[in-house]
Amino acid sequence: MLRRNLRYALLSLAGGLAVVLGVQAYLGLSQDPQARPQIPGLLWPNPKPIGEFSLTDHRGEAFGLESLKGQWTFLFFGYTNCPDVCPVTLAVMNHVANQLSEEPAKQDNVQFAFVTVDPERDTQEQLAGFISYFNEDFVGVGGPDDKLVDLTRQLGIVFIRSKPEADGSYLVDHTASILLVNPSGELIALFRAPHDPVEMAQRFDRIRELVKS
User: Fold this and answer.
1) pLDDT tens-place string over residues 25-51
2) Which residue from 111, 118, 132, 199 lies 20 to 30 Å from 139 (Cα-Cα)?
3) How many Cβ atoms sit within 10 Å of the Cβ of residue 124?
4) What is the distance between the alpha carbons of residues 139 and 136, in angstroms, rounded to a whole number?
5) SS3 per residue for 145-193
6) At 68, which helix (H) or strand (E)?
7) H helices then E strands: how many in the chain?
8) Which H/E stretch holds residue 75?
9) Residue ranges per domain, the chain?
10) Is 65 exposed, middle or buried (0-12, 13-18, 19+ CB in 10 A)?
11) Dist. CA 83–CA 134, nearest whole Å
């Protein structure tokens, strides 16, 4: 268990660094802490644009760049057979959703999406059953590997599938960060594990107010 947690921690760090360094290189962001708001995980002054991609949600409907536009999106990559990190993270996302629901004005234009990095096993039906266990309003997203990497490469998401066991089962190590996409379809922040739902909701409020201003 310790070794597994260490792998996830390293993947989370690698994924987070890939996102941050990639955005900084792309935008030439200043390293001066006085040049941007002090909100952990915020990509500022310019968020990273997300290019076109084509996946499918758990209802069988297309899920692409247009699905991200017009609303805020909390985006997490994992898989339904994940023994620990994914269930915990989705539970955290549900807590965040519940906190936002306490103030209806804050809940408007916010969606939570779970993207599988194990499309071979995570069918549409499997995704639907899995996410509904945590929150019926969550969106499960999947697609073949060639379509999946169109999105993961842009966001710096890392996933590694282990060698199958004799019974065909296998694990997938993956980035544990939750990403935040703004209503323009741009990556604007990431929340690294371990996640605190209260802190996440507060940081989201600060980011949203910053964007409004």
Assistant:
1) 333 444 444 455 678 899 977 899 999
2) 199
3) 14
4) 8
5) HHHHHHHHHHHCCCEEECCCCCCCCCCEEECCCEEEECCCCEEEEEECC
6) helix 65-68
7) 7, 10
8) strand 72-78
9) 2-212
10) middle
11) 15
- pTM above threshold 0.90: no
Residue 94 reports pLDDT greater than 50:
yes
- Nearest to 82, CA basis, from 175, 197, 157, 179: 175
How many Cβ atoms sit within 10 Å of the Cβ of residue 55?
20
CB 88 within 8 A of CB 49: no
Could you tell me the end-to-end alpha-carbon distance of the chain, in angstroms, rounded to an integer?
Answer: 45
Cα 101 → chain centroid: 20
Q: What is the mean pLDDT of residues 90-107?
A: 87
Least confident of 7-21, 58-72, 111-125, 178-192: 7-21
Bridge partners, 13 (sequence order): none
What's the gap between Cα 28 and its chain centre? 24
Task: Give mean pLDDT, residues 69-78.
Answer: 97
Q: Tokens 């990556």 belong to which residue?
A: 187
The radius of gyration computed from the CA coordinates of the chain, to the nearest angstrom, equals 17
Q: Which residue has the tokens 């500022």?
A: 44
CATH 3.30.70.640 holds for 2-212: no
Kindly report, residue by residue over 182-212, the tens digit of the pLDDT.
999 999 999 999 999 999 999 999 999 988 8
